[in-house]
Write a structure and sequence with these properties.
Elements (H helix, E strand, L loop, with lengths): L1 H31 L12 H7 L31
Length: about 80
Amino acid sequence: MEFALRKPVIIAIIVAAVSIATLLVVNHTNLIVDRRPPQTPPGTTFNAVNSAGAVATPSQPESPIKPTPPGPTPVQPASPSK
């Protein structure tokens, strides 16, 4: 009976060790990825502001594709009230 219990325990320990090692490697490589925003080209307003000593936070450019709002389009009233 001793031999029958020893083999599954050894297999479970090996699987656990490989799993933990894999998790640590994957988690560590995700920390290495550079998540900073890309640098702006020289001559932009952002660089001019930073070189002047001010702090500017870059904003996302407006999307060239604008979705149409749901529902009917508004119309002008027949007789505007004054």
